[in-house]
Amino acid sequence: MRHCPAKGRQRYLGPMQGDVNELRALLASRHGILFAHSRDEARLLATISDAARDVGIPVWTWSAASGLRSEHSQAAQVNTDDLRQALSFVRDLNRPMVATLLDADQILDDPVALRILKEVAAEGMTNRTVILTGMPAQIPDALTGVAVTWSLRPLTRAEVEQHVERTVNSLRRSVRVTDLDMDRLVDAVLGLSQSEAERLIVREAVTDGELSGEDAERIHRAKAEMLSDDSPLDLMDAEVTLGDVGGLENLKQWLAVRGRGFEPEAKQFGLTAPKGVLLVGVPGCGKSLVARAIAGTWGMALAALDTSRLHGSFIGESEKRIKRALDAAEAMAPVVLWVDEIEKAFSGTSDHDGGASGRVMSVLLNWLQERPDGVFIVATSNDVTRLPPEMTRRGRFDEVFFIDLPNTSERLAILAHHLRSKNRDPARFSAQALADATEGFSGAEIESAITAALYLAFAEGAALDTERLVRELEQTVPLSRMRPEEIAQLRQWGRQHARRASAEDAS
Q: In this structure, are 165 and 281 located in the same domain?
């Protein structure tokens, strides 16, 4: 079935009055430079146009593709494709105007363009304001004191509901709308621009000529994939649940209780949704597995922050990337945001990177303190000593758990799980012998030893048995014996500063 959605602005909500009022006040107070942030470029431009019209100032818009043009003219000014040329035109015109420069972050790497911009701002009494989009979350040092940041507020849930309702109603003439949960559909598109939300809904509708309750989950998944493409986030399949994790009973119990905080009744009870957890522990003891299992158990999307893609070579680029990643995570909600080995991204000094590490850390800490409901962060760390004290302070995370080397019962559970995954019956192995042989082993080391023993048995044309598995374990040197001082120090920190993830060993 072919369908062409209705054209025009009948489903577009337009600029919100609160945004218009706020921007109008900034323009009237003659701020020379504004950093504007929004995913919804159409709504941003409409808001600028309305606010400028209210104060009687004409609007000009620049892009690298179209040059600089007035809102009253279809023709661009000659020789304004280049950013320097466009800024020079704004400076030399010397009359009131709002100049919106789209995707203008290149200006930070051009000292001449930056100089011209500052000259424009220095003549603020002429009612000229330059609005730049695509800029870092924090104002660069070169523009401190002359620039301010401004963001379109996110659409409220009621506003998104209004837009979704209009979109669905426009589709009813062309597709079947059956068993549609409007609340789930609204949740699925929250955080997107109006045009993005409309495209996803229409796409699902025209795929099979039907818009149903099942489409909301696919739309949410498509939203997450779309947002992750534009940020240092990788969308992952959870694949496992907490039932696949051996031991860690204290942590599991805590997660079971906190997970109920996402239920609608929790808010009525006076609770806020849980914010996140920091998992500190010995390498190979299941921290990453737990992160995936939380998402799988709670039925939430899983987005992994790729810390290797955070830091850029240009001024302000690192802050821009972390802000883009966090904005994307908020838009994906409900979502589990997994930051693996967080110390590697945020523990560096600022001496060698021009202060980028410190600024990235500042952005993250502020977000951890104020992040909205619907984003549950799971941060893992193998070396908490490399984290700044602010990271582990109460309020950043709901709880800090220490995941120690598995105790006897946990090692047996891990052994049984991996043996069953290799189509071996755990009951055919000596539990006591394996428990003794795996003392000091992590879960990852146990899995690796089982794989190695299977290779040996296969090469020998024999069955995997207790003897061969114990022999392989005895030849393996676990990290706890390879680096005993480091492991002992980490375990000491865990006992003093964190909650135990495992229950006391009953064996």
A: no
